[in-house]
Predict the 3D structure of the following.
Amino acid sequence: MYKVNDRWIMKITDVKEYRVTEELQGHPNIVSMLPMSRRSGKYASVVMEYCEGGNLTNYNIKDKQSVIEDITKGIGHMLSKGYVNNDLWRDRGEHLANFFVRGNGTVVLGDFGDTDRVNSKNLIKLSEHINKIIEYINIY
């Protein structure tokens, strides 16, 4: 990722992630993407908001209930659009790396690289991830 200025960053990604990010726009718990983002061939450049609070792996969570609500609202929006992010929970020490914190404390989902259409198998995995996320937040 490349920081453009204090409000925006640019990320080079594949067209699939670009399309998912574009389709999820307009929800308060999804990272914002500028319309100037472009795609060409199998890659795309996405200009998205810079979240001052970093991600939840390095953020000092004060209001656990609010964070859990923001996360579930973002995931719910993805589900309403027919998508599941298979990488919400990582067991290799990068817990919650796909959730970013805006300057006002709002948590947004911001990485859609491992997103697929909803099916019964990935819904089961998603429910396991949500349980791990809530457990992790409540412990720390």
The chain has a mean pLDDT of 86. The longest strand covers residues 8-14.
